[in-house]
Amino acid sequence: MKWDEPPLWPVMAPSLAGFFSACIPHIFDWVPRPWGWVLPAPFLVLVLLSPLLYFAPKPAGGRIELVLGANVAMLLALIPQLFLFVWFIIVILSWIFQSMYVWRHNYPPFRIGTWLGLGAVSGLFIGDLFAHFVL
């Protein structure tokens, strides 16, 4: 799928969803923190929200491959963070780079889903940093 001009929703919606879900454990003390890590609960929120991508606007929406791509990308973006402390920088920079060129090319829905998934996890990382230092 390809857009004629840069779309706003694929950039803003996943990153804002990740940002706000990352702030939840810092606002509410009752949110579980397995192993003392605050990201599993917000990540679970993103995984539970990912089926909503099926209802995304055309040309992206209406395809299950979009949801699968987002979930695969979210897993591949979060799991290395357990072992590599600076992995979040690579994820965020990759998402920014993709946001500049993905809309110009004709990619399959799974690939667009990976872009959306990286955006969600980028928002998750940025939101966690914001919540840790500001909230």
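(the above was protein one; protein two follows)
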Amino acid sequence: GITSLYWNDQSKLFCLIQTTQIIPSGPILQDRPFVVVWNMPTAQCKRRYNIDLDLGDFDIMENRHQSFQGEKMTIFYRDRLGKYPYLSRKGMKVNGGIPQLGDLSVHLSLAKTQLSSLLKPNFKGLAVIDWEEWHPLWERNFGAKMVYCRLSKLLARQEGPDLSERAITSLAKQRFEASARKYMEETLRSAVKEHPKGLWGFYGFPFCSNNYTGRCQKRNKKQNDQLSWLWGQSTALYPSIYLPRRLEGSVDAALMVRYSQSSPLHTTPVLPYARLAFTHTLTFLNETDLVHTLGESAALGAAGVVLWGEVKFAKSMVCNVCKGVTLLCVSDTHHCSLQLCHGNGRCARRCPSSGRMFPPGPTVTSESEEINLIVESPRGDCLHSHFLCLCYPGWTGQECQQKEEENS
């Protein structure tokens, strides 16, 4: 079975139990335990401000010409993959409107054709499906999404006009969730079958509403457990760690990030989505806020982070600050992997709730005027005290020093 893992217990006992259960995914890039995927128009930094981010030097993954669809990473929005059923902003039904009224076979056929023309057979990049109009769990469709529940009830009432209101709601929920599951599950299954080396997953899953206390709400744990079918088909997880403005400069931001990355399936790579500006604003994250997102993710043992942005994000200061923080994250995780894990695993906190960050790796410098990154090399015992190794598949031992037998 699939065992859910939530980093929400402060006890040392839980920390010890949890760390013995984790089996991490392999590195996204060879010999690099943590990568930053640049999903924004970095060319603007060079053209407008003559700031060269030297992405290749930092092992940052990007597509050619900073496009949203390419050989390293591809995003499929609602109109870019098959015939996803949803309601337009004006309330018009598109492809049936709700999952129950969509044509799944037509959707899958078109999606297969689109994938074949867009991706090479050996595609092994990140593949993110961004469907945000409705949620596959009935109770998560609140606010603007409640219309999907209302239309589902109308459909159920047509099927059983003599049913009680309670029975209609129950039937509507059952039909909606079953159809939503089929759309998401079969789409993933088909995509993985055609491009098995790709890292396929849905944006925003798993989810955690923790009110910035560092603990996921109990109902979120239950809801994520109900999505075991989704974790079973996903080959990567892409939770969102976008920060609201009220967390600017606050340590609560790290708590939000920490418990938004609860991985239901330990062997599945976790690459949270981060944003360079606070949600619904153009107020950019400063160095501290970036450490709370990128640094926290790295210390938790994530495979990497996807930085999402728009063309208006290409500001001079943002380019420089991001360059510095990214350099530190990539450098420190790589150093820890080499020093603690023989390069055969990634480091992660012994206790995820400890808040410990990676000690700086070997001295690095940045020419940025906004951020000074001259640091000193840490002692090995500092790493051993607060971090452990999560060995890549094929390696074992406390320091990932032993190669596993193929038949073991």
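Reviewer note on protein two: The chain has one domain: 12-314.
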